[in-house]
Amino acid sequence: MTRLILAFCCCLPLKHLHLNSAYGYRVHPVTRQFRFHNGIDLLAGQDTVFAIMDGSATISYDQFLGIYIKLSDGHLICTYGHLSAILIGAGPVACGDPIAITGATGRVTGEHLHFSISYDGESLDPLKFLYQLTIKSNNHE
């Protein structure tokens, strides 16, 4: 399934990836509770965030993710959270487009990009997904 999904993706969400917090169970840095983390947190400092695929964007806010974008192609949904600025409007987005600037909105201890992926409602490990995406792009060079 991952290889099929990767056929529709073209780039990474940030130019440089540095993992702050992995996918899976962890002690939440704010609440100190042991909970499932459905995404990864990537170190960032006012970095440009990129669309990893063509899709339709929705922009929203909640107390946990802060300002966030959901990018969907109908099956695959990528969520980009804790943003400080949005560079697009709701609607169509092309792969590789700059879509936002990282920030520290919502419930956070510092600036980072929360990045999560789901396929037909099933949460996927974004790190494994991005690793496969990196291998795919390196094989094309």
Structural features, described:
The protein is globular, with a radius of gyration of 14 Å. The protein has helices at 2-6, 126-139; strands spanning 19-21, 24-27, 34-37, 40-43, 48-50, 55-62, 66-72, 76-86, 91-93, 98-102, 112-119, 122-124. It is 13% helix and 45% strand. Strands 1, 4, 5, 6, 7, 8, 9, 10, 11 and 12 form a ten-stranded antiparallel beta sheet that branches. A two-stranded antiparallel sheet has the order 2-3. With 141 residues, it is mostly beta strands. The longest helix is centred in the last third of the chain and has 14 residues, at 126-139. The protein is built from two helices and twelve strands; from the N terminus they run H-E-E-E-E-E-E-E-E-E-E-E-E-H.
By DSSP (H or I, 4+ residues per run), the number of helices equals 2
Shape: globular
Radius of gyration based on Cα positions: 14 Å
**What is the N-to-C succession of helices and strands?**
HEEEEEEEEEEEEH
Outline the low-pLDDT stretches: none
Question: What is the percent of helical residues?
Answer: 10-25%
Strand content: 35-45%
Largest sheet geometry: 10 strands, antiparallel
Derived structural class: mainly beta
Instruction: Average the pLDDT over all residues and give the rounded result.
Output: 87
Counted beta strands: 12
Euclidean distance between termini CA atoms: 23 Å
